[in-house]
Each structure stands twice: as C-alpha cells, then as structure tokens.
C-alpha cells in the first residue's frame, strides 16, 4: 500500500500539470478500451456474480454488482461526458483590485491523491477514475472483494488508455488485494493520500470516518423523504412517490419515508398503496396510515430512521408542512428530500428550511445524482458541510489557492 501511495504521489504531480487536451484524450482512450474489452468485462463480472451468489449476497447487492451491456455503455458515456465538461483546474475566479493596487483572485487546483473505498458497484471504478483524472488528481481505488474480478478487468482498460496518451499508469491504481488490512493502511497514509472518499454501507463509512488519519468526504446513509402537501397536484404526487421508491431500491437517493398531509391522504394513499402492493413494496405506517390502509403494518420509531435499500416504505400522515419539515430534519440523513406542491410560497420555504444536501420541488429524489446534475458523474454524495456538499463532481475534487498579481508593489 505504501508503494501504491508513493507512486500515486509521484503521478499526481504529472497529472496536475497535464493540459485539458491530454486528459480528455486519456478519457476517450479508456472509453475505446472498454468497448473493445466488453466480452472480457462481462466474463470477469460473471465470476463475481457467481461468487456473490455462493456467498449469499442479497438481491440489492447483486443488482449493484451486475455489469450489463447497458452498464458498460453507461461507463463509456460517462467517460465521454466527463471529457466534454469544462476543466476546473487553473481557472481563476473573483479577480479584483484592492486599495493597495494589487489584484487578488482564487485559482482552482487539484486536491492531490484521492483514496476511494467502495463496495459492489464496478461502475464506480470508471466514475471515480474519470473525475479524478479530469480534475488533475491521482487516485487509489479499493473496491469490495465481491467485485475484484470486474475491477481488475476495468483497471486493465484504464491502464492501457493512460499509456496510450503518455500519462503515468500510476495516476489510477486499483488495489488488487482483498485483504481488509489494505483499507486500514490506505486511510492512514497522510504522507501520500490527501482525502478519502468512502462509498458503501453505513458500517464501512462509520469505520472509515472513525479511523481515518486524512480528511473524509462522506455520507452515512440516504434516508430520503417525499412530502405530499395539501396543495399538491395528486397526479404528480402519485408518479413521484412511485418513482422515488421503486425506480431502484438499492441506491442512496431512493425514498425511504413518505410524508402525506392528512387533508389529501384519503385521496392519494389508497391508489399509491395499490400500486406499491402490485410491485411488492411492504408498507409500514403510523397509526393513522394503518387505519386507512389495510395493507400497512405498524411502523416503529426505528423505521423512521432506517435506510431500507429494499422494497420497504415507511409512511406517516402529518398535519402541515411544519410537522413534515420537523420530521425530516429530525429523522433524515441530510441527503435528499422533496416536496410535492403547487404553492410557490411553500416550495420556497421547504427549500430554505430543510437541512439536506439536495432539496427538491415536484421532482423524484432519484435525480440526486452527479450524472443527472450535469456533473458527468459523481465521486460520491457528501452530506457534510465542509469541504463539499451534495453530489461531488469535478469542482468538489479541487481546492483553491489565492493568486496575487502585482507590478512591483510593496507593502507600506
């Protein structure tokens, strides 16, 4: 691990000064390698899926692990989109004259070496590599043991793409050991690693946050809410509530709790419950919900603070938006929350008062994603308030330094 770290530190200096054209060429070269290696990628992924089934991985984890043809196409598209994005490195903002006559501004610079620790999803390897490379950083990627064959195959494509344009292969390194001690070492190398980004289950992220000796960009869980207001368009509410929960279960931006204003509950909940039942979603509700819906079972206090990552949904009736916002700020994870309302005033107030990294009006929580936000992809979601918040894209992988322009100026 120390050897990987040393190589990454050396490579980071070269990537940091690479011009935008070279970085874009590298991304497109990696995309071509992925296309050519499609059969090998599927074969490697099949090994991981077989091993996962034999180890008893649940359906949500297997869904994250599977690399389909569409998934490979998405990785290629990701690389292409990141190549078209503006390069933040070297841009100077807020340039201004001060009374002394000098000009002062802030220049975007890479963070340096980024360590990314993640589980299951092999597409994260490409997302992370593309964003780190475009933002001028070197990266050490440590995927989960369940995706080791897929990650090695993807790593081979990355290495060939980097070599094709003359960038150091150590700019993107995949840890090839499944030994858990590798993680402990990676998060304890401040001499080589500038920031750690964990992506995975709550247990993993809590461990990284507790033990890391370098800064961490993270979110612990995604307890996302949709609130259906008494001034909601109920057709919009129905579609958003179904999509936010059932589009995909095992993702951090899926809705886990539905809040419904009591005034409209009888108008919208029965049809929603019928649809959820058709799809196979288990409903857990407050006492008022259980009285209204025979298919709901009683929710416990624990349900309001649980990220299910599966076909289970908590539902609570609330008197007004005050109660909805209070519930979200108490039980939510500051990830993503949405209101369905036709009231401009209520929507604006919801945006101001809900303390989450993404807050939405009349939209599914499933949009809380770097790709959907036009970032090309995301390195992860941050629910922290320092140094980045929400989906972390290229700009979130840079910092700033002050630059000063003078013409022989001296301080008096």
Mind sketching the topology for me?
Elements: H1 2-16, H2 20-36, H3 38-54, H4 59-65, H5 69-84, E1 92-97, E2 103-110, E3 113-118, H6 123-134, E4 138-142, H7 148-164, E5 172-174, H8 181-186, E6 195-199, H9 202-211, E7 224-228, H10 234-246, E8 255-261, H11 262-279, E9 282-285, H12 287-292, E10 297-298, E11 312-318, H13 321-331, E12 336-340, H14 344-353, E13 358-361, E14 381-382, E15 390-391, E16 398-405
Parallel strand pairs: 3-4, 3-6, 4-5, 7-8, 7-12, 8-11, 9-10, 9-11, 12-13
Antiparallel strand pairs: 1-2, 2-16, 14-15
Helix pairs in contact: 2-5, 2-7, 3-7, 5-6, 10-11
Could you write a compact summary of the structure shown?
With 412 residues, the protein is of the alpha/beta class. It is 42% helix and 19% strand.
Structural write-up:
42% of the residues lie in helices and 19% in strands. With 412 residues, the chain is α/β, with parallel strands linked by helices. The strands form four sheets. A seven-stranded parallel beta sheet has the order 10-9-11-8-7-12-13, with helices on both faces. Strand 9, helix 12 and strand 10 form a beta-alpha-beta unit. Helix 3 packs antiparallel against helix 7 and helix 10 crosses helix 11. The termini are far apart. The mean pLDDT is 94.
The shape is globular
Please compute the radius of gyration using only Cα atoms.
23 Å
The helix-strand sequence is HHHHHEEEHEHEHEHEHEHEHEEHEHEEEE
Main sheet: strand order: 10-9-11-8-7-12-13
What share of residues are in beta strands? 15-25%
Give the total of beta strands: 16
Secondary-structure content class: alpha/beta
Q: CA-to-CA gap between the ends?
A: 50 Å
- Give me the number of helical elements: 14
